[in-house]
Amino acid sequence: MTSSVSHLFPKALFPYSKEIKDIATSARPNVLIDNENQSLYSILKLIRTELIGKKLHDGQDHLLMLDLFVNEFMGFDDIRVRDYYPPVNASRLDEFVKVLNEHANAQSLGLDCVLYYILKDFDSGIAESYIGSVDDITLRIPRCLYHFINSLYYLDRFDILRCTRHLNCIDNFTDIPSSMIKRLIQMSSIVPYHSQSSPDWSSDTGLKNYINVHTSKPSARSVISMVRSLKLNVWLSDADTVLMYIDCLTDLNPGISVRALEELRGNNTNVSWRALLKLLIIKILIKSIKQQRLLKTMLNESKISHLQFDQLFKGIAMFALVDTKINDDILEALYNMTSVGDEDEELSTLKEQSPAFFAKYIDPYTRDIVHCANNLITWKLQSVA
How far apart are CA 224 and CA 133, in angstroms? Predict the structure, then answer.
């Protein structure tokens, strides 16, 4: 490794001061913000402060995945990447490269990955040439590391599709620090998932999809895609990750989330099965509350008929809890939710472990949950009779 590699970055192509419209599509951040007349520098700073800093609230100082790669994967925890990247000018980029080069020594692979990451901002062709990428071969860094640094690059730009596409090319993640794995999932929770297809809202199926999409978090599919791409046994993860997964899986498909809990019974988990069941029920009830509100709005605005309302109501989330292999457990949990008395011990433990999750997603619906639970008890008893 030479003492300076700043010559790799052609100053005539310096991308960070240019307006977004002048940047190649592969380097354009995929974020839902007004980016007219803003530079790539401004957009990346905005991602740090507004999107990551304010939405994650994890005390990690507005870190991009690039920061964690340098600090945790390469082990250079004394480098404050945010002080250098995105660079405000070419001189600042030279300083960043110099600091990295001084630290590198035995970490030449890691340095090559960071240089490749930065070069992608300049020109994807230059970046691929630097690492000697030809067909399915990379000469400068191992193929698995190539896919990993690409996944970080695209996640930092809120492009979950290309991020997970690269992660799916990695066989195992044993060499990746667990803190980075957790951060990947955390980041996916604030990244909207953009489907390339446009559903037909005029059909019955389209209406059901419309209701499901509009009562789900935009990032739900991103989280599920991330967990699957990482080949993670999510049930053995920390409480925050488990709760996030249950939350998103229930948003996307309540029936599948119930079946997952049915199959999970008796297996090892980091969170008790009964606590997971109670959380699942609560999330399904909240999903049902949102669906009922949306249906009433659509009916009041004459977007659907009374007949369509009745048909669509039969498909709301809570009916996934009516006929299951764990009926007795569900009914017992529902009775506990509607009874007056001490706070549920298992849920209290979960709340202590993940207070932010409960404050944001559970607590605002407490009163409605009890009402919905009472209705569901009635329907469950009628279905058994």
Answer: 30
Token pair of 28, please? 């354009």
Q: How far apart are CA 283 and CA 318, in angstroms?
A: 9
What CA–CA distance (Å, rounded) separates 66 from 110? 11
Length of the chain: 385
CA distance 28 to 21: 8
Read off φ and ψ for residue 74, nearest 5 degrees.
Answer: -80, -25
Looking from the CA of 102 toward its CB, the CA atoms found within 13 Å total 8
- Residue pair 223/163 in contact by the 8 Å Cβ criterion: no
Q: What is the pLDDT of residues 102-121, one digit of tens each?
A: 887 656 788 999 999 999 99
pLDDT (tens digit, 9 = 90+) per residue, 306-361?
999 999 999 999 989 988 899 899 999 888 888 766 667 888 888 888 888 888 88
**HSE-CB for 151 with a 13 A CA cutoff:** 27
Cα-Cα-Cα-Cα torsion 16, 17, 20, 23, nearest 10 degrees, comes to -60
Q: Which residue has the higher pLDDT, 85 or 197?
A: 85
How confident is the model over 158-191, as pLDDT tens digits?
A: 899 999 999 999 998 988 999 999 999 999 999 8
d(CA 340, CA 383): 25
Residue 231, classed as helix, strand or coil, is: coil
DSSP string, 98-162: HHHHHHHTT-HHHHHHHHHHHHHHH-HHHHHHHTTEETTEESSS-HHHHHHHHHHHHHHTT-HHH
Output the pTM of the full model.
Answer: 0.88
For residues 139 and 122, what is the distance between their CA atoms, to the nearest angstrom?
A: 20
Q: How far apart, in whole angstroms, are the C-alpha atoms of residue 95 and residue 100?
A: 9
Identify the pLDDT of residue 63. 92
Whole-angstrom Cα distance, residue 50 to residue 45? 8
In one-letter notation, the amino acid at residue 237 is: S
